[in-house]
Amino acid sequence: MTNVQIFGVKNSQATRAAERFFRERRIPVQVVDLKQKPMAPAEIKRFAERFTLWGLLDSEGKPFADAGLKYMRLTDPDILRRILEEPRLLRLPLVRAGNRVSIGADQESWRAMASEIS
Description:
Blueprint: E1 4-8, H1 13-24, E2 29-33, H2 41-51, H3 53-56, H4 62-66, H5 76-85, E3 94-97, E4 100-103, H6 107-117
Parallel strand pairs: 1-2
Antiparallel strand pairs: 1-3, 3-4
């Protein structure tokens, strides 16, 4: 059975929604709290290959504005470093099931993942 990993933070409503979505369908999930354990750079790159590093950032969120990123020109290594330091910059949750990945509260992608697993 394919393992579903949810990368997020416990106080994120979207992360809890993803966890609830899969648990309601009796699909086992592994939740990784990014405040406790940061993502490995290789894992971030897996998502970035599909969405780009800038695409992973929650440009509408308060952490993004507080960091002043709206007006900065950052290189990919700079973005990666900031993501590792502050996971709330990401559009959470990041969900991975096999080769499928999704970012944010994307129930359509979650349904596709669930249908492949079932």
